[in-house]
């Protein structure tokens, strides 16, 4: 179940007006008093424009909390519009659109703001034009028309950038971020969210800062950076509680629960979900209760507590149906199918999965469609394999589309085709064996009756057997050729993947290099250069894989030579000044081992090149040997050494913190000796040699 978005900020308002949270006129009798004053305005002020001005000021105060009475109030000045100023006519249209936006009637929102744009002449009142464009974009976004929304938001932002009011600039940026997030363009979303966050912080607008924090958490969550997502969700929770925003509090608690659930910390997830459910029930937030109930049911399913899972998801399904919420209903149906299947109620599980599949296909939701197909496959594969297979194929296809990678899709399809071909080959072999047995039985019966006819029958059988074997050999040869072709296609696709990964890493390296040239602070510039060096270290691996026959491993000696050459060029160090001696076994290591090992070597050699020889040259010795206890890696220099190596490894050095984490990943041991130079001795126990 995905995390929840908070309500967006209020529509872009006319500059200089008060925010609704500070409104004084909220009760119904005050609204009636305003209407009476507006009706009596001509005798009090003697001018229709004064009456129009009073109504528009009241509409600006009331439209957020009382949109329907606002529309009724605006209707009282419709006959007076011919006497209104051009700005008053535009505001009259704007507050109609703003009230309809609060009511969720986006077609009406579009109509009124388009009327504003049609009313304005080119170059006239750019402030009103940009405000109308921003609110028109909100209508498009609410209807899912993301490209149209992005276009009008960007047009509005061009005008807002020339003005001093920071709030609309932040609001439009936040809205653009929601569009980029929906389209999966996470770097673009993060960029505009951070810009909006700076603007809202500068204004001291706590509510807007809280909303943007939640949206930034969504981006980190989508990229599986759960610690950062939790940090931003927590900031949203704290701000919502401080401002008394109970709905925001419920959303933040639910999002924190989803983050911990995705991190496989079900106890913490359940705590947050229960807190979210309590707030939603307390404030009567019926439209969102099903989401949290489904999340609690998912945790119960993972814990094999199927009775609790059934209770949560049945409650969630009832709420979702009552609220006419097909998305939450489909999620609850899928989880109900999981519980019933585990309890052995296969027929009931299939009914739930089929109902979820119908809702998912009607909504066009690929994730839900995948889960429903996969659940149907699991319930059918034992009793009815032939009915289960189409659901498996559909699930594989949907999984590939969810991964959104053409190469992965091609490889998955290739694996499916190979599986089908192998099954077909086995079926044909079984059929041939069955035919052979039947023929041999017939031969035995014939030989018992007549010897001569038995011999003739044997000859016929042998001829038929020879023919079958000949045909079988051709079939096997065809299958072998097809498998070889499939393997070649797989190699090509893997090479293309490594090539694209290498290119992407090189682009990142170039971006870091460009950024470092524009950073004046030496510490920041060094940090960028170190990050660039680490990216280049990983890019070398994919470059080697792309250019050689073996795609699963790399010769560590050849890789080290390229890594060393790259580091010497990066830090502009001549081999005559610092000599590097390498004693490395001819090993072809698996990629999962080589990537952390390459980063370890990069950090150790970089530290030696930068810090070991402040006064001049020296020598660095690198040894990588395969021993009985594991892979022994030693980096030794005759430089200035260090006084307290243990303090370094236990301190806040990012480089050694990274080395320690990578050594732990490979179940290794790390020892550092800083006397008479620096000697780092590492024993890696969990390493893999390429097959």
UniProtKB/TrEMBL annotation:
Statement: the UniProt record of this protein carries the keyword Transmembrane: yes
Gene3D superfamilies attached to this UniProt entry: Histidine kinase-like ATPase, C-terminal domain, PAS domain, Tetratricopeptide repeat domain
Keyword Phosphoprotein set for record: yes
Keywords: ATP-binding, Kinase, Membrane, Nucleotide-binding, Phosphoprotein, TPR repeat, Transferase, Transmembrane, Transmembrane helix
EC number assigned by the record: 2.7.13.3
Protein name, entry field: histidine kinase
GO molecular function, one term: ATP binding
SMART domains from the UniProt entry: HATPase_c, TPR
Source species: Neolewinella litorea
Source organism, top-level taxon: Bacteria
Repeat region (TPR), residues: 130-163, 210-243, 330-363
Root EC class: transferase
Catalysed reaction equations from the record: ATP + protein L-histidine = ADP + protein N-phospho-L-histidine
Residues that span the membrane, as ranges: 451-470
One Pfam short name: HATPase_c
Domain Histidine kinase intervals: 496-688
